[in-house]
Design goal:
CATH topology of the largest domain: Methane Monooxygenase Hydroxylase, Chain G, domain 1
Helix content: 55-70%
Order of helices and strands: EEHEEEHEHEEHHHHHHH
Largest sheet: 4 strands, mixed
Number of helices: 10
CATH class of the largest domain: Mainly Alpha
Strand order of the largest sheet: 5-6-8-7
Distance between the termini: 19 Å
Number of domains: 3
Structural class: alpha+beta
Strand content: 5-15%
Length: about 300
């Protein structure tokens, strides 16, 4: 769409905002917008009040996990008030667990037999997105580095203490996805790719969690020096991607491609003639590596 520039006063130049976009952002005269300049591009970010949305859904008969998945999906979708109806009071346990672990900023507003009402404590602010995404990155990096340090120092009894970091990542990821779905604070194409990045960062944290659980389940299992070195290299690989995301240069992707191939080859070689537990560990390494590598295409799209 095109807009004509209008001269006002001595040197001021103005341009009108599309009415539909302003309405979607709930902007009115006197509100502020943020302008971001990048080369010959000027991005306008709306910061108007986002409309309140509510939904009522019947979760009767759903298994606890499905109740939690439903709550997470509704939270990500952007609803500010979620009313859950059920015919079994056991559902309350699943509701409270998901509320505590994932639904950042939500509380139980009303609870009575067969009904629980959840509501956001405060209004979402799209300006918080960048901070939440960076925190999600940093929590995941910390999870990988701390896991390596504890395994290297053979402090297996302390590894379980890292699991709350994965829960924190879930909260941050859900919140980021909620903001993307709830508002139009960037163009639609970039929003779709950014959602994929947030989604995959959460999956990366999940794979670290799976490695932790694998080690915890095997009380006498000792992680070999080769396995430790691989984990260290994968952590380094993730940190390189993190640096690429915040300081994008297309040429840096060459490293991610060649290093991915080297690490895959190492995993394949070390998987030969080893025990089943270590094979399972290397399978999680492989999935972790692939998920990090899959972030590359979406990152190119966002920056071009």
């Amino acid at each position: 769409m095109k807009r004509k520039i209008v001269k006002q006063g001595g040197t001021a130049l103005t341009v009108t905002l599309p009415s539909k976009w302003a309405a979607d952002q709930n902007l009115k005269a006197g509100d502020e917008v943020e302008l971001v300049q990048k080369g010959n591009e000027l991005t306008i970010k709306g910061q108007g009040e986002i409309p309140f949305e509510s939904i009522e859904i019947n979760i009767s008969g759903l298994e606890p996990k499905l109740i939690q998945y439903t709550m997470s999906a509704l939270h990500k979708s952007g609803y500010d008030e979620i009313t859950l109806l059920y015919d079994d009071e056991k559902a309350i346990v699943a509701i409270q667990e998901e509320l505590k672990s994932t639904l950042l900023g939500f509380i139980i507003m009303d609870q009575r037999p067969g009904k629980t009402v959840l509501r956001a404590l405060s209004k979402d602010n799209t300006a918080e997105f960048d901070h939440a995404l960076k925190r999600s990155f940093l929590v995941t990096l910390s999870l990988g580095d701390s896991l390596y340090d504890l395994l290297k120092s053979k402090k297996h009894d302390e590894i379980g203490s890292l699991l709350p970091l994965e829960k924190t990542n879930n909260q941050l990821s859900n919140f980021c996805e909620r903001l993307i779905n709830k508002s139009n604070f960037m163009n639609q194409k970039k929003s779709a790719f950014l959602f994929l990045i947030v989604w995959n960062i959460e999956k990366i944290a999940d794979y670290y969690r799976d490695i932790i659980n694998l080690v915890l389940e095997q009380k006498d299992y000792s992680v070999s020096s080769d396995s430790l070195e691989l984990l260290k290299d994968i952590n380094k690989y993730l940190r390189y991607y993190y640096d690429l995301y915040y300081k994008f240069e297309l040429q840096k992707i060459n490293y991610l491609l060649t290093e991915r191939d080297k690490l895959k080859e190492k995993i394949n070689k070390l998987s030969i003639n080893t025990d089943n537990i270590t094979i399972s560990l290397y399978d999680k390494y492989s999935k972790l590596l692939s998920t990090i590598f899959n972030l590359i295409t979406t990152t190119i799209c966002i920056n071009n």
